[in-house]
Each structure stands twice: as C-alpha cells, then as structure tokens.
Amino acid sequence: MVSLIDLKRQFNTIKTDILAEVEKVIESGHYILGTHVKKLEEEVAERLQVEEAVAVANGTDALVLTLEAYGIGSGDEVVTTPFTFFATAEAITRVGATPVFADVDEKTYNLNPECLESKITSATKAIIPVHLFGQPANMDKINEIAQKYNLYIIEDACQAFGATYKQRQAGHLGDAACFSFFPTKNLGTLGDGGMIVTSDKRLANQLRTLRVHGSSKKYFHDRIGYNSRLDELHAAILLVCLQKIDEWNANRISLAEKYTASLRHVKGITVPFVSEECKHVFHLYCLASPKRDDVTAFLNKDQIATGIYYPRCLHLQEVYQHLGYKKGDLPVAETLSEELFAIPMHPYLTSNEQNQVIKAIKKAVNKL
Ligand SMILES: *Cc1c(COP(=O)(O)O)cnc(C)c1O
C-alpha cells in the first residue's frame, strides 16, 4: 500500500537527534515552560519575522486563546471559511461568538474576498482566513476589507508552516496567526502542540497569561484562563524538526510539481492551482473529480491510499443546524466537499511510489 503519509519514515530520519534531545530534557529536570519552549518561540518568531511567539498545547487552543485575548465572545461574529477542519469554527463557538461562513474561491479553495465582504455586519469582530492545504489565502484583499471595517485578522496557518504570500511568511500576514504541531501537519511533533505568532506585544502578554490559568505572577490570577502549554519534550522535538522543515517543504513542492506535470492533462481530473503570489507547501495534495467515489475506489483497489478533506462543509454540520444554513448556500465549498480527494504526499515518498500513484490514477480514469 502506498500510504497518504508515513510519519514513521519521517521521524526515523531524525530519531537519533530526537533521542539525544529527549535525554537532555529528562536530565534538565524541567518539563514545563523551560528553556526549550523559550528557544522554540524565539526561533519561530525570528523565522517568521514577527515580534512574539507563544507556544500552547495545540492548534485549536491557539485559536481559542487568540479569540479570547482579543475579547471576542458572546454577541460577536467572526467570518471564516466553511471549507476547513472543524477546529477553525469550533474555536469561534467555544469563546461564545458566532461563526459566519463565506464561500471559497474555486481555484485556490481559500476564502473568497468577494463573498467575505457581504457577510460583514456591525457584530463582526474578526476574520479567520485559513491557508488551506498549505497555500496562503488572498491576503491583500482580505487585509483591505479588514481595514475598511476595522476587524482583526487571525490567520489559521495550521497547515502552512513555511508557506509564503508575496514573499512574506504565513504567520506574518495578519494581526496574529495560529499554528498546529499535530503529527500529520507539515511541521509536527510526536503528539500535540500549537503556537500563536504576532507582533502585538499586548496580545502576546495576554496569551502568556491565558495559557497558565490567567496568571501573570504565580498563584495570583487576573482572569479565568486555561491550562494550555507546550511541553518541553515537544519543544525539544520541534527544535529538531525545525532544522528539517525547509528540506521537507522542498520535497513536498517537488513531488507536487511532478504530480501536476504528470496529471494536468488527464481528462476528468483537476490538479491543484498554485497562485503566482504564493509558495504552496502542500500539507496535502488534492485532486478533484466529479466521479470521486469511483476514482478513489479504483485507487484503493490498486493499493493507493486516498483521503477526503473535507467530506462535509462546516455550515452543513449537524452541530451548526441552528445557524440556519442550507444546502446550496455556499455552492463552491459544497462542490469541493463532493469532488476533492487527497493522494499520497509526504517528504519521504519515493519516486517509485509516486510513479505507482500516477500510473494508478491514469488507469482509474481510463476505466470510468
Ligand atoms: C489541524 C488544524 C487545526 C487544529 O489543530 P490541532 O493542533 O489539531 O488542535 C485547526 N485548523 C486547521 C486548518 C487545521 O488543519
């Protein structure tokens, strides 16, 4: 079977370095908010050219804490995309605000600025664009709208570490940005982790308080907070991964180029569009086909794994029924949820495996 992702293969390439770092953490006797977390925050901030980075327990918390630090809650609205992982909207609901969904662009699959503006009301406080599958959203237009209506922009960059928009790093394209270090993300650890980056020092200070029970001085509490910290162990592992991320992203990009060159002329299949303004880091490589079920069934029979991101748009989720959306409201996102499928993509996919995937897709399409 050619798998979608092979974390074991990936982590084995840096196992010795990781074990040495884990040993150092054990020997340090310091396991929460110590030197490794601080170093990781500094390295990420420098890389992304932002003033501040605050490590937290996971990407979902990164979003929740940022919304809360901005004072967003009950009665407020936050506009986002319906075509993303559930956590993007869940975080908005979690702080008591209402997610408002705007349709996506049919080429990039990211928030469509033209659909976004008409969703803004006097209750709107922020926009959360998601850099889906590793490609940044159309940030100039989104920033223009945010400025016009005085809204915060919180990037959901959970799938896009190292991606760029007009030569600027994802994470440096709004007021604050959230990353996830879940193992399958393009920068991931051996467990959960997350981070917020920003150049707003006040926000960063509030986030540092929120992640430790609303306390800026130990045992003195200014507000109700969370227990949401990144462990020293994960910070140490991520410092090792950080040295590899450029190589890993470059591998993903060259694999994507080969897929696209080999599949762009295959009838009935749409390859990913990469904007000239962006470096797309291909957290996922997704094809589109109106006959997705047939194509993926053929591929699976040929020992090629496939994945579906995402089979149901967020505005049509059971839990959001009360928001009153119906099928047909956001047609571009809905079509994507019916047509897209991911094929194997990870930094250590071999060219033999990739050739096997390409051959199987051509064969599958011929049989339709
Ligand atoms: C993974 C992901 C999250 C959540 O991150 P966790 O670390 O799993 O909590 C949020 N948004 C997007 C777009 C993601 O892909």
Q: Can you give a write-up of this model?
A:
This protein has helices at about 5-10, 15-30, 35-50, 60-70, 85-95, 115, 140-150, 200-210, 230-240, 245-265, 290-300, 330-340, 350-365; strands at about 50-55, 75-80, 100, 125-130, 150-155, 165, 170, 175-180, 195-200, 215, 220, 280, 285-290, 340-345. Strand 4, helix 7 and strand 5 (about 150-155) form a beta-alpha-beta unit. Helices cover about 40% and strands about 15% of the residues. It has two domains: about 5-100 and about 110-240, Type I PLP-dependent aspartate aminotransferase-like (Major domain) (Aspartate Aminotransferase, domain 2); about 245-365, Aspartate Aminotransferase, domain 1 (Alpha-Beta Complex), CATH 3.90.1150. The chain contains 13 helices and 14 strands. It binds pyridoxal-5'-phosphate (PLP). Pyridoxal-5'-phosphate binds next to helix 4 and helix 5. This is DegT/DnrJ/EryC1/StrS family aminotransferase. It comes from Salipaludibacillus agaradhaerens. Keywords: Aminotransferase, Pyridoxal phosphate, Transferase. InterPro entries: DegT/StrS_aminotransferase (IPR000653), PyrdxlP-dep_Trfase (IPR015424), PyrdxlP-dep_Trfase_major (IPR015421), PyrdxlP-dep_Trfase_small (IPR015422).
Question: Top keywords for this entry?
Answer:
368 residues, alpha/beta, Aspartate Aminotransferase, domain 2, Aspartate Aminotransferase, domain 1, 2 domains, globular
